[in-house]
Design a protein that fits this description.
Helix content: over 70%
Strand content: under 5%
Distance between the termini: 86 Å
Largest sheet: none
Order of helices and strands: HHHHHHHHH
Oligomer: single chain
Shape: elongated
Number of helices: 9
């Protein structure tokens, strides 16, 4: 079943909980489709009066910040052996190449890697644990984590919500425009056909009135 269709079958409180939990687990370092869940829920909130986009954005932001913080603590305690274990368990996400790419980003950008990592799928999973492994000062990590989490989760929710509202409005207008266009096309086609039929009738009448010459 499609994610949005499934979310539409559960109560609003469950939608908030699922979004916060999935994003939190993804931020912690578990490869889950947090962004897909968030986008689907935000789109649902634009079409479903029971799902409040403000509460949804707050739950998503809270999940992102808490999940990243837990990931940081785990990474700081587990160190390099943790990355090696994750590489064996999830080679598609924590392979040596992925870890090396993430480490280069952290070495180059520092706390900005945590901030901008929110908007990049690979770094979103790595940011918390890797910041802990690399012993980034927690105050730097916390600032980048909170700002990045709120901007990504809250911003994504707001953008998708308003896009959904505008799209639904345009679709409603388009349905009326489509109906009017269909009626106009139908009337035009009928008039054109009627005119052609009248012309054909006019051309055929003189031929029918011409006397047939007598045969001697």
């Amino acid at each position: 079943m499609h994610v949005q269709e499934w979310l539409d079958t559960v109560p609003a409180a469950a939608v908030y909980a699922v979004v916060g939990l999935v994003i939190g687990l993804e931020s912690l370092g578990i490869p889950l489709p947090g962004e897909i869940i968030l986008v689907s829920a935000a789109l649902l909130s634009s079409q479903h009066a029971g799902v409040d986009p403000v509460i949804l954005g707050a739950c998503a932001s809270l999940g992102a910040v808490v999940g990243d913080s837990i990931g940081y603590a785990i990474g700081r305690k587990g160190g390099r052996p943790l990355l090696a274990w994750l590489g064996r368990k999830f080679p598609r996400h924590f392979g040596e190449g992925h870890v090396a790419t993430a480490e280069r980003s952290f070495e180059k950008w520092g706390m900005w890697a945590v901030f901008f990592g929110r908007f990049i799928a690979l770094l979103r999973i790595f940011a918390g644990p890797l910041a802990g492994v690399l012993r980034m000062p927690y105050w730097k990590f916390l600032i980048a984590n909170v700002l990045g989490g709120i901007l990504w989760a809250g911003g994504t929710t707001a953008v998708i919500y308003y896009v959904g509202v505008v799209a639904e409005s345009w679709l409603k207008r388009f349905s009326w425009l489509g109906l009017v266009a269909a009626v106009l096309i139908g009337l035009t086609s009928m008039l054109v056909l009627k005119r052609k039929a009248k012309k054909a009738t006019t051309h055929s009448e003189p031929a029918e009135k011409e006397p047939v010459p007598a045969v001697d």
